[in-house]
Amino acid sequence: MVEDRHLISGWDDPRFPTVRGVRRRGMTIEALTQYMLIQGPSQAVTSLEWDAIWTTNKKVIDPVAPRFWAVAKKDAVEVTVQQADGTPVPESTMAIPLHKKTLDIGNKTTTYGSTLIMEQADAQSFGTNEEVTLMDWGNAFVAKEASASGSAEPITQLGAKLHLEGDFKKTSKKVHWLAKSPAAPLVDVVLKDYDYLITKKKLEEEDNWTDFINPVSEFIEEAYADSNVASVKKGDIIQFERKGFYICDKGYDGKTSMEFILIPDGRLSSVVLKASVEANQKPKKADAATKAGAGEVGASPAGGMPEFAPKEAQKYTLDSRGLPIPVTTKMYKVEPLAGSYEPVVNTKMHSVPSMTS
Protein backbone atom coordinates (compact mmCIF):
# COMPACT_ATOMS: atom_id res chain seq x y z
CA MET A 1 0.00 0.00 0.00
CA VAL A 2 1.28 3.44 -0.92
CA GLU A 3 1.78 5.74 2.05
CA ASP A 4 -0.27 8.96 1.98
CA ARG A 5 2.19 11.75 2.78
CA HIS A 6 -0.46 14.50 2.49
CA LEU A 7 1.80 16.46 0.13
CA ILE A 8 -1.16 17.67 -1.93
CA SER A 9 -4.86 18.15 -1.31
CA GLY A 10 -6.02 16.21 -4.36
CA TRP A 11 -5.83 15.94 -8.13
CA ASP A 12 -6.70 19.63 -8.41
CA ASP A 13 -3.91 20.81 -6.11
CA PRO A 14 -2.24 23.85 -7.76
CA ARG A 15 1.17 22.19 -7.35
CA PHE A 16 0.09 19.09 -9.26
CA PRO A 17 0.77 19.05 -13.04
CA THR A 18 -2.69 17.73 -13.92
CA VAL A 19 -5.20 19.58 -16.08
CA ARG A 20 -7.33 20.19 -13.01
CA GLY A 21 -4.26 21.36 -11.09
CA VAL A 22 -3.09 23.93 -13.65
CA ARG A 23 -6.68 25.10 -14.21
CA ARG A 24 -7.01 25.80 -10.49
CA ARG A 25 -3.73 27.71 -10.68
CA GLY A 26 -5.12 30.00 -13.37
CA MET A 27 -4.54 28.27 -16.69
CA THR A 28 -7.26 29.11 -19.20
CA ILE A 29 -8.85 26.76 -21.75
CA GLU A 30 -7.98 29.23 -24.50
CA ALA A 31 -4.29 29.18 -23.54
CA LEU A 32 -4.24 25.37 -23.44
CA THR A 33 -5.82 25.26 -26.89
CA GLN A 34 -3.39 27.80 -28.35
CA TYR A 35 -0.40 26.01 -26.85
CA MET A 36 -1.43 22.64 -28.30
CA LEU A 37 -1.95 24.17 -31.73
CA ILE A 38 1.45 25.87 -31.58
CA GLN A 39 3.17 22.58 -30.69
CA GLY A 40 1.42 20.70 -33.48
CA PRO A 41 0.63 16.97 -33.66
CA SER A 42 3.40 14.53 -32.78
CA GLN A 43 3.78 10.93 -31.66
CA ALA A 44 7.07 11.65 -29.91
CA VAL A 45 7.23 11.84 -26.14
CA THR A 46 8.86 15.13 -25.19
CA SER A 47 9.53 17.09 -22.01
CA LEU A 48 8.68 20.79 -22.31
CA GLU A 49 9.41 23.75 -20.08
CA TRP A 50 6.60 25.51 -18.20
CA ASP A 51 7.65 29.00 -19.27
CA ALA A 52 6.13 28.86 -22.76
CA ILE A 53 2.66 27.70 -21.74
CA TRP A 54 2.41 30.21 -18.89
CA THR A 55 3.57 32.97 -21.24
CA THR A 56 0.78 31.99 -23.62
CA ASN A 57 -1.67 32.09 -20.73
CA LYS A 58 -0.55 35.60 -19.74
CA LYS A 59 -1.25 36.86 -23.26
CA VAL A 60 -4.81 35.58 -22.86
CA ILE A 61 -5.56 37.01 -19.41
CA ASP A 62 -3.65 40.31 -19.52
CA PRO A 63 -6.15 42.18 -21.76
CA VAL A 64 -9.19 41.14 -19.71
CA ALA A 65 -8.09 40.79 -16.07
CA PRO A 66 -9.45 43.66 -13.91
CA ARG A 67 -6.90 45.52 -11.77
CA PHE A 68 -7.05 45.86 -7.99
CA TRP A 69 -4.68 46.73 -5.13
CA ALA A 70 -3.51 44.75 -2.13
CA VAL A 71 -1.14 45.74 0.70
CA ALA A 72 0.71 43.14 2.78
CA LYS A 73 -0.45 43.12 6.38
CA LYS A 74 3.00 42.48 7.80
CA ASP A 75 4.50 45.80 8.93
CA ALA A 76 1.98 47.82 6.90
CA VAL A 77 2.70 51.55 7.21
CA GLU A 78 0.04 54.12 8.12
CA VAL A 79 0.42 57.35 6.13
CA THR A 80 -1.22 60.65 7.14
CA VAL A 81 -1.90 62.77 4.05
CA GLN A 82 -2.38 66.52 3.96
CA GLN A 83 -3.32 68.86 1.17
CA ALA A 84 -0.75 71.28 -0.23
CA ASP A 85 -1.87 73.98 2.21
CA GLY A 86 -1.49 71.66 5.19
CA THR A 87 -5.19 70.97 5.76
CA PRO A 88 -6.54 67.41 6.10
CA VAL A 89 -7.63 65.64 2.93
CA PRO A 90 -11.43 65.30 2.82
CA GLU A 91 -12.77 61.83 2.13
CA SER A 92 -14.06 61.34 -1.41
CA THR A 93 -14.58 58.66 -4.05
CA MET A 94 -13.96 58.41 -7.77
CA ALA A 95 -14.81 55.89 -10.48
CA ILE A 96 -11.60 54.41 -11.91
CA PRO A 97 -11.46 51.97 -14.87
CA LEU A 98 -10.83 48.38 -13.84
CA HIS A 99 -8.50 48.12 -16.83
CA LYS A 100 -6.98 51.27 -18.31
CA LYS A 101 -6.65 49.68 -21.78
CA THR A 102 -9.94 47.74 -21.82
CA LEU A 103 -12.53 50.24 -20.67
CA ASP A 104 -15.56 48.06 -21.39
CA ILE A 105 -14.66 45.84 -18.41
CA GLY A 106 -16.15 48.53 -16.18
CA ASN A 107 -15.15 50.75 -13.28
CA LYS A 108 -14.25 50.39 -9.62
CA THR A 109 -14.82 52.90 -6.82
CA THR A 110 -11.57 54.26 -5.39
CA THR A 111 -11.75 55.93 -1.98
CA TYR A 112 -9.48 58.87 -1.09
CA GLY A 113 -8.84 60.12 2.43
CA SER A 114 -6.38 61.49 4.95
CA THR A 115 -5.25 58.08 6.26
CA LEU A 116 -3.65 55.51 3.96
CA ILE A 117 -1.74 52.26 4.34
CA MET A 118 1.29 51.30 2.24
CA GLU A 119 3.74 48.46 1.86
CA GLN A 120 6.66 48.42 4.28
CA ALA A 121 9.08 47.89 1.38
CA ASP A 122 7.86 51.06 -0.31
CA ALA A 123 8.16 53.11 2.88
CA GLN A 124 11.72 51.86 3.42
CA SER A 125 12.68 52.94 -0.09
CA PHE A 126 11.58 56.56 0.30
CA GLY A 127 14.22 59.22 0.76
CA THR A 128 13.90 62.25 3.00
CA ASN A 129 11.13 64.52 1.67
CA GLU A 130 11.13 62.59 -1.62
CA GLU A 131 8.46 63.27 -4.20
CA VAL A 132 6.63 60.06 -5.15
CA THR A 133 3.56 59.25 -7.22
CA LEU A 134 0.47 57.85 -5.53
CA MET A 135 -1.10 55.72 -8.24
CA ASP A 136 -4.49 56.96 -9.51
CA TRP A 137 -4.10 60.11 -7.42
CA GLY A 138 -1.02 62.24 -8.07
CA ASN A 139 2.32 63.27 -6.61
CA ALA A 140 3.11 63.84 -2.95
CA PHE A 141 6.13 64.72 -0.83
CA VAL A 142 6.85 62.11 1.82
CA ALA A 143 7.80 63.52 5.21
CA LYS A 144 10.36 60.97 6.31
CA GLU A 145 12.93 61.63 9.02
CA ALA A 146 16.54 61.47 7.86
CA SER A 147 17.40 59.08 10.69
CA ALA A 148 14.78 56.65 9.46
CA SER A 149 16.21 56.38 5.96
CA GLY A 150 17.92 53.05 5.48
CA SER A 151 17.04 51.89 8.97
CA ALA A 152 16.54 48.18 9.51
CA GLU A 153 13.70 48.82 11.93
CA PRO A 154 10.18 48.70 10.43
CA ILE A 155 8.58 52.07 9.76
CA THR A 156 5.21 52.41 11.46
CA GLN A 157 4.03 55.86 10.35
CA LEU A 158 4.74 58.41 7.65
CA GLY A 159 3.43 61.83 6.67
CA ALA A 160 2.78 63.05 3.15
CA LYS A 161 1.76 66.35 1.55
CA LEU A 162 0.00 66.32 -1.80
CA HIS A 163 1.65 67.96 -4.81
CA LEU A 164 -0.96 67.21 -7.45
CA GLU A 165 0.54 69.64 -9.96
CA GLY A 166 3.75 67.61 -9.93
CA ASP A 167 4.82 65.59 -12.99
CA PHE A 168 4.52 61.83 -12.47
CA LYS A 169 7.03 61.29 -15.28
CA LYS A 170 9.76 62.83 -13.11
CA THR A 171 9.26 60.52 -10.10
CA SER A 172 11.08 57.22 -9.82
CA LYS A 173 8.57 55.59 -7.45
CA LYS A 174 4.94 54.87 -8.30
CA VAL A 175 3.31 53.21 -5.31
CA HIS A 176 -0.10 51.74 -4.61
CA TRP A 177 -2.02 52.45 -1.42
CA LEU A 178 -5.33 51.85 0.32
CA ALA A 179 -7.45 54.40 2.15
CA LYS A 180 -8.77 53.52 5.59
CA SER A 181 -12.45 54.42 5.64
CA PRO A 182 -15.47 53.01 7.52
CA ALA A 183 -17.54 53.66 4.39
CA ALA A 184 -15.34 51.33 2.31
CA PRO A 185 -13.88 48.70 4.66
CA LEU A 186 -10.82 46.82 3.46
CA VAL A 187 -11.10 43.13 2.60
CA ASP A 188 -8.87 40.50 4.22
CA VAL A 189 -7.19 38.32 1.61
CA VAL A 190 -4.67 35.48 1.61
CA LEU A 191 -2.21 35.42 -1.29
CA LYS A 192 -0.78 32.00 -2.09
CA ASP A 193 2.17 31.01 -4.24
CA TYR A 194 3.41 27.50 -4.99
CA ASP A 195 6.67 25.80 -5.82
CA TYR A 196 7.56 22.49 -7.45
CA LEU A 197 6.80 19.33 -5.47
CA ILE A 198 9.98 17.64 -6.73
CA THR A 199 13.30 19.47 -6.56
CA LYS A 200 15.08 17.55 -9.30
CA LYS A 201 14.48 18.56 -12.88
CA LYS A 202 14.32 15.01 -14.21
CA LEU A 203 14.09 11.85 -12.13
CA GLU A 204 16.10 8.86 -13.30
CA GLU A 205 15.03 5.23 -13.01
CA GLU A 206 17.37 4.62 -10.10
CA ASP A 207 16.14 7.67 -8.17
CA ASN A 208 13.87 7.38 -5.17
CA TRP A 209 11.42 10.23 -5.70
CA THR A 210 10.90 10.61 -1.97
CA ASP A 211 14.52 11.81 -1.71
CA PHE A 212 13.63 14.85 -3.80
CA ILE A 213 10.44 16.05 -2.13
CA ASN A 214 10.42 19.83 -1.78
CA PRO A 215 10.17 20.63 1.95
CA VAL A 216 8.70 24.09 1.25
CA SER A 217 6.25 24.25 -1.66
CA GLU A 218 3.56 26.65 -0.40
CA PHE A 219 4.03 30.33 0.42
CA ILE A 220 1.26 32.33 2.12
CA GLU A 221 0.99 36.08 2.63
CA GLU A 222 -1.86 37.87 4.40
CA ALA A 223 -2.89 41.21 2.95
CA TYR A 224 -5.53 43.92 2.81
CA ALA A 225 -7.37 44.52 -0.46
CA ASP A 226 -9.65 47.35 -1.52
CA SER A 227 -13.38 46.92 -0.97
CA ASN A 228 -14.04 46.31 -4.68
CA VAL A 229 -12.41 42.88 -4.39
CA ALA A 230 -15.44 41.60 -2.46
CA SER A 231 -17.27 41.32 -5.79
CA VAL A 232 -14.72 38.84 -7.20
CA LYS A 233 -16.06 35.28 -7.44
CA LYS A 234 -14.26 31.95 -7.18
CA GLY A 235 -12.53 31.19 -10.46
CA ASP A 236 -12.25 34.85 -11.51
CA ILE A 237 -8.83 36.00 -12.69
CA ILE A 238 -7.62 39.45 -11.62
CA GLN A 239 -4.38 41.36 -11.25
CA PHE A 240 -3.15 42.85 -8.00
CA GLU A 241 -1.05 45.62 -9.49
CA ARG A 242 2.67 45.42 -8.71
CA LYS A 243 2.16 41.88 -7.41
CA GLY A 244 0.92 39.75 -10.29
CA PHE A 245 -2.06 37.91 -11.75
CA TYR A 246 -4.18 35.85 -9.36
CA ILE A 247 -7.11 33.48 -9.58
CA CYS A 248 -9.72 33.58 -6.83
CA ASP A 249 -9.77 30.27 -4.96
CA LYS A 250 -12.23 31.33 -2.23
CA GLY A 251 -14.77 34.09 -2.59
CA TYR A 252 -16.03 36.68 -0.13
CA ASP A 253 -18.31 35.45 2.67
CA GLY A 254 -17.93 38.33 5.12
CA LYS A 255 -16.47 36.06 7.80
CA THR A 256 -13.17 34.61 6.60
CA SER A 257 -10.41 35.83 4.31
CA MET A 258 -10.68 35.53 0.56
CA GLU A 259 -7.99 33.35 -1.02
CA PHE A 260 -6.06 34.02 -4.23
CA ILE A 261 -3.46 31.89 -6.02
CA LEU A 262 -0.60 33.53 -7.92
CA ILE A 263 -0.59 32.66 -11.63
CA PRO A 264 2.89 32.13 -13.14
CA ASP A 265 3.51 34.53 -16.02
CA GLY A 266 6.30 32.65 -17.78
CA ARG A 267 9.10 34.89 -16.57
CA LEU A 268 12.17 33.26 -15.04
CA SER A 269 11.24 34.22 -11.48
CA SER A 270 7.85 32.52 -11.79
CA VAL A 271 9.02 29.15 -13.15
CA VAL A 272 12.31 28.61 -11.31
CA LEU A 273 12.55 26.57 -8.11
CA LYS A 274 11.89 28.99 -5.24
CA ALA A 275 12.85 26.98 -2.16
CA SER A 276 16.48 26.56 -1.16
CA VAL A 277 17.04 22.83 -1.22
CA GLU A 278 20.43 22.98 0.46
CA ALA A 279 18.99 24.92 3.40
CA ASN A 280 15.95 22.74 3.90
CA GLN A 281 16.84 19.23 2.78
CA LYS A 282 19.57 16.96 4.10
CA PRO A 283 21.77 15.52 1.36
CA LYS A 284 21.26 11.86 0.55
CA LYS A 285 23.95 9.24 0.10
CA ALA A 286 25.76 9.81 -3.16
CA ASP A 287 26.88 7.01 -5.46
CA ALA A 288 30.50 6.50 -6.43
CA ALA A 289 30.19 8.35 -9.72
CA THR A 290 28.66 11.38 -8.03
CA LYS A 291 31.28 11.44 -5.27
CA ALA A 292 34.04 11.31 -7.84
CA GLY A 293 32.81 14.49 -9.49
CA ALA A 294 31.80 16.36 -6.35
CA GLY A 295 33.40 19.67 -5.66
CA GLU A 296 32.70 22.97 -3.96
CA VAL A 297 29.39 23.57 -5.67
CA GLY A 298 26.82 25.79 -4.00
CA ALA A 299 24.18 26.24 -6.68
CA SER A 300 20.56 25.18 -6.29
CA PRO A 301 18.83 22.92 -8.84
CA ALA A 302 17.12 24.39 -11.84
CA GLY A 303 13.64 23.11 -11.04
CA GLY A 304 12.21 24.25 -14.36
CA MET A 305 14.84 26.70 -15.55
CA PRO A 306 14.19 27.84 -19.13
CA GLU A 307 16.82 26.73 -21.61
CA PHE A 308 17.38 30.31 -22.80
CA ALA A 309 18.85 31.43 -19.44
CA PRO A 310 22.63 31.20 -19.97
CA LYS A 311 23.53 32.21 -16.40
CA GLU A 312 21.50 29.34 -15.05
CA ALA A 313 22.61 26.76 -17.60
CA GLN A 314 25.09 25.20 -15.20
CA LYS A 315 22.28 24.15 -12.91
CA TYR A 316 21.11 21.61 -15.48
CA THR A 317 24.13 19.52 -14.53
CA LEU A 318 23.43 19.54 -10.78
CA ASP A 319 21.13 17.36 -8.72
CA SER A 320 19.04 18.50 -5.73
CA ARG A 321 22.10 18.38 -3.49
CA GLY A 322 24.06 20.72 -5.73
CA LEU A 323 26.31 17.85 -6.89
CA PRO A 324 27.20 17.09 -10.52
CA ILE A 325 24.87 14.60 -12.22
CA PRO A 326 26.84 11.69 -13.75
CA VAL A 327 26.24 11.44 -17.49
CA THR A 328 25.33 7.95 -18.70
CA THR A 329 24.60 7.34 -22.38
CA LYS A 330 24.74 4.49 -24.91
CA MET A 331 25.41 6.91 -27.75
CA TYR A 332 28.82 6.84 -29.41
CA LYS A 333 31.09 9.83 -28.87
CA VAL A 334 31.14 12.47 -31.60
CA GLU A 335 34.05 14.88 -31.83
CA PRO A 336 33.16 18.54 -32.53
CA LEU A 337 33.84 19.90 -36.02
CA ALA A 338 36.88 22.11 -36.38
CA GLY A 339 36.51 25.61 -37.74
CA SER A 340 33.28 27.23 -38.79
CA TYR A 341 30.88 26.46 -41.59
CA GLU A 342 27.71 27.82 -43.15
CA PRO A 343 24.71 25.48 -42.87
CA VAL A 344 23.04 24.56 -46.16
CA VAL A 345 19.27 24.42 -46.14
CA ASN A 346 17.84 22.22 -48.89
CA THR A 347 14.30 20.97 -48.55
CA LYS A 348 11.46 20.06 -50.86
CA MET A 349 8.84 20.41 -48.15
CA HIS A 350 6.13 22.99 -48.70
CA SER A 351 6.14 26.06 -46.48
CA VAL A 352 3.79 26.14 -43.53
CA PRO A 353 2.22 29.49 -42.62
CA SER A 354 2.86 30.61 -39.02
CA MET A 355 -0.08 30.39 -36.65
CA THR A 356 -1.31 33.55 -35.03
CA SER A 357 -3.09 33.77 -31.70
Q: What is the overall silhouette?
A: elongated
The total of helices stands at 7
CATH class of the largest domain: Mainly Beta
Let me know the CATH homologous superfamily of the largest domain: Ribosomal Protein L25, Chain P
CATH overall fold name of the largest domain: Ribosomal Protein L25, Chain P
Strands of the largest sheet, in order across it? 1-14-15-16-12-13-2
* Helix/sheet category: alpha+beta
Main beta sheet, described? 7 strands, mixed
User: pLDDT under 50 segments (min length 5)?
Assistant: 277-318, 327-334, 336-357
Beta strands, count: 16
Mean pLDDT: 81
Cα distance spanning the termini: 46 Å
Q: What is the total domain count?
A: 2
Regarding quaternary structure, how should these chains be classified? single chain
The helix/strand order is HHHEEEEEEHEEEEEEEEEEHHH
Radius of gyration: 25 Å
Strand content: 15-25%
| Residues in helix, % | 10-25%
The CATH level-2 architecture of the largest domain is identified as: Beta Barrel
3D architecture notes:
By secondary structure, the protein is α+β, with helices and mostly antiparallel strands. The chain has two domains: 1-61 and 185-325, Ribosomal Protein L25, Chain P, CATH 2.40.240.10; 69-179, Ribosomal Protein L25, Chain P (Beta Barrel). It contains seven helices and 16 strands. The protein has helices at 19-24, 29-39, 50-61, 120-125, 268-271, 277-280, 288-293; strands at 67-68, 70-72, 77-82, 92-97, 107-112, 115-118, 131-134, 138-143, 157-162, 174-175, 178-179, 187-194, 218-225, 237-240, 244-250, 258-262. It has a seven-stranded mixed beta sheet with strand order 1-14-15-16-12-13-2, with no helix packed on it. Strands 10-7-8-9-3-6-11 form a seven-stranded mixed beta sheet. Strands 4-5 form a two-stranded antiparallel sheet. Helix 2 crosses helix 3 (50-61). The chain is elongated, with a radius of gyration of 25 Å. 25% of the residues are buried. The model is unreliable at 277-318, 327-334 and 336-357 (pLDDT under 50).
